[in-house]
């Protein structure tokens, strides 16, 4: 057994964060037609990936790599604009790592483990003692230093962050069973019938897609996995289950490292991988005391901040009054003689006169023409909605024209609007 030499805290200074940001995100439907899921806008200003990256930075990690793959242009552009402040002379680094045939015979990343294996030479050159592997598509605030401390103290080969989720939703995650000491006894990747937690028949213990390894151990495990022709080269399907069987895998409870400002009512972690979940997580931010505090200056969510003029609300006439209540409104927005309620407006949105907008997530550059009524919608960036459009009042009509979910959320993209115009040339 390897003898571990103690390292003085903080351990994050001896760690590298590696963010897996290449997944297609197909459950977000047309919202990921032009961009990968981690690059999708969230909370009026940020992108989804900013949460994992901000957690790493706020935890004290100063070496970060991001593995990209599908439809990566929007993501790479965002990373270059918003995360280019890391400085080599301060012993910091920020590497964007697209699949680039760095390993002989390789092409696209064939799995999450392969996305790390193909860049082992870069990783090992940094000389970091620990590797923190992160999923780039979840929304949460977490101090990875706490997890690193547990990993070092427990002598684990891998430490896996976990969170309790409704059992019926757990088939989208890796599901684990642990003993009283926190050691993982079994690990099933995306089981069709997720096992329940003891004493909690409606809950399952799900992996958050966050793993801590000692770098030397991880490198050897990845090399062995790469040589296995039967492996899918995936952390959840291959690497972690193998360690559960043949090594020491330990669970880390999210409740131990979740960062809150003291006002939140719960430990917040969301997989915003469906249109319904994405809409709900955004709209929840409009609560008076939201479960996710974006205003916590002690744990800021870093992102690229576009230079925009202040938001503007104009006209104060009866029947034509520009207002926004219980809403997040970004810079560059103009609400002109319309009523916006419980909505999230990203930068440079225009809501023209005589409109009613409620329960809307409007991505950057959306234009809502006059006399429109929108309820429970997600509108993709740059979409110009035609004058007089009504959405959210006739389910059958919404489903015919746009993408409508079972929960009644309507997703609208520019190709859908163009198809609508072609079907009604006189509109």
TrEMBL record:
Residues 309-412 form the Glucose-1-phosphate adenylyltransferase/Bifunctional protein GlmU-like C-terminal hexapeptide domain. Its EC number is 2.7.7.27. GO terms for biological process: glycogen biosynthetic process. GO terms for molecular function: ATP binding; glucose-1-phosphate adenylyltransferase activity. The keyword Translocase does not apply. Alpha-D-glucose 1-phosphate binds at residues 109, 174, 189-190, 207. The record marks 69, 108 as: Could play a key role in the communication between the regulatory and the substrate sites. Residues 18-286 form the Nucleotidyl transferase domain. Pathway: Glycan biosynthesis; glycogen biosynthesis. Keywords: ATP-binding, Carbohydrate metabolism, Glycogen biosynthesis, Glycogen metabolism, Nucleotide-binding, Nucleotidyltransferase, Transferase. It catalyses: alpha-D-glucose 1-phosphate + ATP + H(+) = ADP-alpha-D-glucose + diphosphate. SUPFAM superfamilies: Nucleotide-diphospho-sugar transferases, Trimeric LpxA-like enzymes. InterPro entries: ADP-Glc_PPase (IPR011831), ADP_Glu_pyroP_CS (IPR005836), GlgC_bac (IPR023049), GlmU/GlgC-like_hexapep (IPR056818), NTP_transferase_dom (IPR005835), Nucleotide-diphossugar_trans (IPR029044), Trimer_LpxA-like_sf (IPR011004). HAMAP family: GlgC. Involved in the biosynthesis of ADP-glucose, a building block required for the elongation reactions to produce glycogen. Catalyzes the reaction between ATP and alpha-D-glucose 1-phosphate (G1P) to produce pyrophosphate and ADP-Glc. Homotetramer. Belongs to the bacterial/plant glucose-1-phosphate adenylyltransferase family. This is Glucose-1-phosphate adenylyltransferase. It comes from Teichococcus oryzae.
